[in-house]
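Hi X.,

You mentioned you wanted examples for the new student's onboarding notes, showing what a folding record looks like when two proteins sit in one file. Here is a clean example. The first protein comes first, with its sequence line followed by its structure tokens.
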Amino acid sequence: MVTLKVGYLPVATWAPLFLAQDRGYFQEVGLEVEASPFGNYATQVPLLAQGQLHVAGCANAVICYNAFGRGLDIRIVTDLQSAGQTEKSRGASGLVVRKDLWDNGTIRGAQDLVGRTLYTQAGPGSGQHAQAAHWLRRHGIDPSDMDWTQLQFPDLYAAMQNQGAEVGFQSEPFVTAGLTRGIHHLLVSAEEMEPNVQSTYVMYWTGIDGLGPQVGERFMVAWLRAVRDFLNAMEYGIDQDAVIAILTRETGIKDPEVHRQSKYPWRHPNGGVDADALQADADLFAELGLMGQVDVRPRIDDRYHQFAARYLGEYQPPR
């Protein structure tokens, strides 16, 4: 049994990890996964590069792109969350505005954000910053005309309840929790801001292959099994109650009905990553002067998800 150290965020995006753990998929392929929660992806990158973590996530964000530019020992291996492809998966994350400010007409569009603070999971240079910057520029607004401040999803949820924040990025299950409880309004979804967004992805430490025979491939087989279980549950209702019970246990929202009503985070059931979308965001950050030019494509290693898709067979929707 090989021990793998995995970093994650306690949100629905990481449902495949929770499911694979709960259903014994990792154990079936000879892996013992030690999973540790983090507040954001920025803190995971140096630990992954040093081999203190073996698997972690990152985003279409400056800190991740800079890590690639420095040639750190990390590589992108599969989709974690990308643009929703169905009605049930579009809108799983986006920019929300406090409900009273929406109701009274204070904030109704991009032009109303000038001079305000936009809260993001990882501050300026984050993937959410990229999404909003694309959207703002299409509306003729300079992204530097607002303040980009870091605030994690649960803290933003609480701050809006207490009227301590006006507008910021949220992800499920907090999006639906805020909508159903009258805390915020969804101003614009991630897909509306950036239609082909590759929000997050799973990364491996480059030393993972030295931990044992085909460790990276084995992890990916278990991961993609769970990816498909999650998709089948949330899109087609297969074994949905059991999946929602796991989400209720593992995320910050403890109301199963919120999870039932939530949009679910989409990821490719065969594991592919949108290299063009990642490169477009890297180019945007370079243009905004937040980082130098970085070529993302050499940092993408497709062989693990390709192996898993061959092993499991191409995904087929349930009949």
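Then the second protein repeats the pattern, sequence line and then tokens:
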Amino acid sequence: MRRRAALERFGLKPDKASITITFSLLVCVLLMLPGRLTAQPIRIGSLGLSGPLLPLWIAQDRSLFSQYGLKAEVITFQGGSTTIQALMSGEVKFAAAGSAAGANARLAGADVVAIAEWVNTLPYMLIVASDIDAPEKLRKKRIAISRFGSAAHYAVRLVLTKFGIDPDKEVQMLQIGDESLRLSALRQGSVDATVLTPPSNLTARNLGFRVLTSLHEAGIQYSFDHLLATREFANKNKDAVQRFLKGFLHGIAYMKKNQKESIETLRRWMRLNDQNALDETYRIFGEMIPAKPYGTEEGWRNLLDVLAASNPKAKQLESKDMFDYAHLREIEKSGFIDALYKK
């Protein structure tokens, strides 16, 4: 009777057989009217717990995705391949992950697409012994890397080349291992320099070592972190993709404009209580993450140079096969991003 009464208020007098169908269609129409849009449930996969993910955590904690009509849930994975598997299976609709994970998946035949690149440089600092106060003093020095072909190895090569130093002839690179081992080697004097990420760079500085430069400050471009979706989902769900991007973009803007609150978000998600480390992580990624998260062709080619060391086919992967910035460009063209920084 309630369904019949509701339909009759709209001037409809259906027979009994069509009441259920007609009422269901009417509900769908009402939900599409302005102001009646319900939040869409969306699961977002993220890789690990590191500083670059701050905009995503802010968007989640501050209900920014909800503000744009998405009921979001962030799920943390501990491996790039696991994150991609969740994306391909449909367990998550978006993934915030390292660019290498997405590119390797693409090379393996997965139809993933990057809809934004929110870190477009290598987040490394070049840490040197205290007596090295100029780039030219790196010549003939020993530099610690994790292993040949790694991102750390490539970071050293890029920054040395930027300084006009031949990485193959004018320095000695040593495979030492992860950041803690490289820092130990630096403390023991068995190497003269290495590259570290935040907040390890702060530990090194407190020990008396010098931060000669960051790769960001040196202008090094590198495709590092992507927002990923499957191409099929991105093509068929334009509205959901744009709502997700708006929430993430708002998270970037909030991060840049609200230091205290953003540091508290870092503290909760990273379970880190070292205030100096939190301040340093916020400072670095607050500067590094762009308001408009596009990558560059140079950054993409630099990533492929690293991947090609273990998979020669990487050199054949074109940026047009990996990126789809159509949604981001449409949002930017509307003035949405610029408006975030005027509030």
